[in-house]
Amino acid sequence: MADSDVATPIELPVIDISDPHDPVVGKAMLDAAAKYGFLYVNSKGTDFSTEDVDHAFGLSKRFFASPAAEKETCRITPNNRGWSGMHTETLDPENQRTGDFKEAMNFGDFENGKAQQPVPPVLAPHESEISDFAVLCTKTCNRILSLLALGLEMPQDFFTSRHDPASGPTGSILRFLYYPSIFSPATASYKHDKDVRAGAHSDYGSITLLFQRPGQPGLEILTPEQTWAPVPIVPGNDPSAFPFPPILVNIGDLLSYWTDGLLKSTVHRVVFPLAEQRSPNPQDRYTVVYFCHPVDATELVPVPSEVVKQHRAKSGGVGVVGFGGGAGSLEPGKRPLTAAEHLESRLAATYGFTKEN
Ligand SMILES: O=C(O)CCC(=O)C(=O)O
Ligand SMILES: [Fe+2]
Fold it and tell me: Whole-angstrom distance between the N-terminal and C-terminal Cα of the chain?
């Protein structure tokens, strides 16, 4: 694969989602999701204010700076909730000699503002604020899911009605991530071209929202030419165009399966860009990620979309997905997979054990 530092950054479309009922925007969203599997949404016209995002990053920073003994009180459990320390997770075990150079804190569904898991002491007074942030994430995901449904020429609520946490538990996760800088003792063993901050993987859910901070680069996506392309944190030449860096959205495996591979679940990873390694002032990278999943019991029935049908006819429906052929290959008399079963099968295929990325 090409050296990521000589690769040209990828240019992805920036989509304004302030009107989730606009079919033209739906088409633009669908095109980006089908071509790249990644797109930005303009931070104006989402459900977030700059303060909401700054506040979430502030809480995340305080958590990762808190004593290890406190983080231990909420260590990650098999339900994928809690704190995972440096090198605990290895997203690409076949190609990594060391676990990811990152720490993460995962929150599952909140109920009435309450986490359904141990909350670390430093975050306990802020539990409802974290829950509020997760609610804003679901609202923004609903805009995106509505637009994708419009782009697919389906009833606009086809996806959103199946992602409503009021209908039951979901696999959704709000995650704080911390990747220490190249100056940190925690990264002393990091070797360029051997190690990664987060191994190559695709996400498992429907869609993922990624919030990033200016000056903290590292994300790369695998292009169809099998090269790594860095993704700029702020697209274009005018950072002042956005109140905070646009939210990067990517399609996960489940939505790719559900649309028979029309929507792409693109492989991505996090590295130390060479420029960052050589910088006199390298930065830690903090990100906030929301993995949006349908309600567990959702049946992944074939989507009622002519656009998907045409895609199937064109691609022959063979090898387009790789994870069981896609929802449209459901044989007569067979029951569709549920969202929870799809997740299980992805986890089993990747790791042989239950762990979501
Ligand atoms: O932190 C990032 O930039 C990406 C994180 C990611 O891809 C993941 O946790 O699935
Ligand atoms: Fe990811």
Answer: 23
pLDDT tens digits for range 222-274:
998 899 999 999 999 888 999 999 999 999 999 999 999 999 999 999 998 88
- pTM value? 0.94
Class of domain 2-351: mainly beta
pLDDT at 132: 98
pLDDT in tens, 2-53: 454 567 899 999 999 999 999 999 999 999 999 999 999 998 989 999 999 9
Name the nearest CA neighbour of 290 among 20, 56, 128. 56
Domains of the chain by residue range: 2-351
Provide the b/e sequence for 276-312 (b: ≥16 CB within 10 Å): bbeeeebbbbbbbbbbbbbbeebebebbebebbbebb
Look-up of token digits 């002519």: 306
Distance 28 CA to ligand 1 centre (A): 24
Ligand 1 proximal residues by C-beta, below 6 Å: 177, 198, 203, 210, 219, 268, 270, 287, 289, 357
Asked if residue 89 has pLDDT above 80, the reply is yes
Q: Tell me the CA–centroid distance for residue 183 and ligand 1, in Å.
A: 21
Task: Give the closest ligand to the alpha carbon of residue 202.
Answer: 2
Alpha carbon of 49 to ligand 2 centroid (Å): 24
280 vs 129: which has the higher pLDDT: 129
Q: Whose CA is nearest to atom 3 of ligand 1?
A: 219
Ligand nearest to the CA of 289: 1
**ipTM confidence score:** 0.99
**How remote is the CA of residue 17 from the centroid of ligand 2, in Å?**
22
Quote the pLDDT of residue 90: 86
Q: Rounded distance, CA 218 to CA 210, Å?
A: 13
Ligand 2 centroid–CA 203 distance in Å is 5
Q: Which atom in ligand 1 lies closest to the alpha carbon of residue 250?
A: 7
Q: Which residues make Cβ contacts (< 8 Å) with residue 50, sequence separation at least 6?
A: 43, 243, 244
Q: Which residue owns the Cα nearest ligand 1 atom 8? A: 357
